[in-house]
Amino acid sequence: YRDLSVGIDVLVYGESMFDYAKSCSSISELIDDASTREYGYFLLNYVCAKFSPDLHFFFFISELIKYGLISIVALHFRGRLNSTIFVFSYIVLFYFSGLCLMRQGLAMSICFFALIFLEKNKIVYLLLILVAWMFHSSAFIMVMFIFLEFLKKRSLSLYLNVAILLVLYVFSTALLVLLGGSGLVRSEERR
């Protein structure tokens, strides 16, 4: 069992959100009273709480989702990259931070999974990014990959590609600030 003192997010919102989801009698009650727009995380808590009142069951399911999706991505891209190195790198770089950043870790694994669909089915890609956004608003930045894919397919000069990427990078912060002010990706106080 993972100790509840491991990971700052468990102390900030992890345990309280699970307890809140456990106390809700319906999904509509959960959504109506949610203090955030990141409904995916609330919903996952709710479903897990209905199967088991133990927070560790939620931890198990969230890790299963993360590593399941990463494994699927590794298998899908095995022709382009070494799957073992990819999974090992993911574990080394994100395992411990995933214990602290629970919502972001789930969102990131969904975003990695969405990359499978980037080239062939942009609608599915965008829908998966929307699902990831329902876990953490930072997933919104993955919309930029649509533009990167567009640039990759164009026979523009290297300098023009670099210039466009630089402009996107410089204005991405301003775009996130603008979106944050609009309430679309606002961070609210957690339960």
How does this structure look, described?
With 191 residues, this protein is mostly helical. The protein contains nine helices and no strands. The C terminus is likely disordered.
Task: Furnish the topology, listing elements before pairings.
Layout: H1 8-23, H2 27-32, H3 39-51, H4 55-76, H5 83-100, H6 102-114, H7 122-133, H8 144-153, H9 158-182
Helix pairs in contact: 1-3, 3-4, 4-5, 4-6, 5-6, 6-7
Based on Cα principal axes, name the global outline.
globular
Number of strands: 0
Question: Mind summarizing the main beta sheet?
Answer: none
Per DSSP, the total helix count is: 9
**Beta fraction:** under 5%
Helical/strand content category: mainly alpha
User: Can you give the helix content as a percent range?
Assistant: over 70%
Query: Regions with pLDDT < 50 over 5+ consecutive residues?
Result: 186-191
Give the termini separation. 24 Å
Give the rounded overall mean pLDDT.
79
Radius of gyration: 18 Å
H/E element order: HHHHHHHHH
